[in-house]
Amino acid sequence: MVSSGEALTTKVTTGSPYRLDSSQVLRASSALLRHMNLQQQQKEERSEKKTLIGDNSDATDAEDIPIINEPVWLVLTTKRHIVDKNRLKPGKISVPHSLNTSPSLSVCLITADPQRAIKDAVSDPSFPSSLSSRITKIIGYSKLKARYQSFESRRQLLSEHDVFLADDRIIMRLVQTLGKIFYQSSKRPIPVRIADIERVDGKRIKRDQKKKSTNDNSPAAFASPQTVGKEIERTLGCIPVQLAPATTASIRVGAINLTPQQLSENVETVVNGMVEKFITKGWRNIKAIYIKGPSTTAVPVWLANELWLEKTDVLENDAEESKGSKRSRESKKRKSASDKAKPLGRDKNFKRPRVLEEEGEEAAIIDSRKEKLRKQKARALEDTESSK
């Protein structure tokens, strides 16, 4: 997708290096979409039956219509794990180009009890009609917990709807209720705020903790139909963000039916939102940013020059060298000590030599050998003289 002579990432010439280069994001988006379209064309040529799946309402020409509306993922790696519980809660980031623009979109809304209040709000004349036609199911938390206990019922619910929205007051309780069938898929519930918020002079009033503890069993208060409609429309125009306590996060930022310019704008918006709200220490904690398709390699968008987060994480050269030399000396001492302590004859094929216990005995043997040699030489000389 990128020639070998071109640089994968570019450094900014002015300003802070901890920001995206718009030209690099656009290049990566163009290369990725071009490669994904080429892959789909090859699949279409190999397949016998051509089918159109997905939302292709934005395509104008028949040749530009993709076979499958494949998603584009943003892969973001950090230098340290994300362990803050507030940042690990499900969230959302508003993007300029929504992924839920299809008029035939099926939305399931999960609310706090009672569900009748939200059903009345959706059926109210002041509620947007274009939005009410797409909300095909409204279910309260208690009924969801009672009706969908088996895996088969949850699978059926997952397949019947395209998007799942959940009241932000019960979003954390849905993890155990819906289980891995939902949370291992790309249809995890997106939090939406539909509660009635009391404001004074434009400022939100927090509920008293004592009242909250005493009124846990009281029915939840919902906002007006107009407010609920605006919040749902705004949520459908957002991208869900659900992080894990790890160093890698994958977020769906687009699809193959977007143009390179639209995809690059979504990528920049999501990265800025992640830095401001979800990533601890912001840009300093980001290691690399990539974009990829379901079956493509990751295209680099931004790479950090420093692999450490704080300067205290880096050892000084002198201290590191002294520690290394000290470590090498200690290893040599241990090796020499182990060599001395190693007994002889441990190998089965090794023949242990005869060890003399006393030096005097060894000297006597050497002298006897020398005397024997002298006698042999003298005898040899006598034999030569007699022969002459």
From TrEMBL:
SUPFAM superfamilies cross-referenced by the UniProt entry: Ribosomal protein L1
Membrane-traversing stretches: none
Highest rank taxon of the organism: Eukaryota
Biased composition (Basic and acidic residues): 317-328, 336-357, 379-388
One Pfam family linked to the record: Ribosomal_L1
Region (Disordered): 205-225, 317-388
Protein name according to UniProt: Ribosomal protein L1
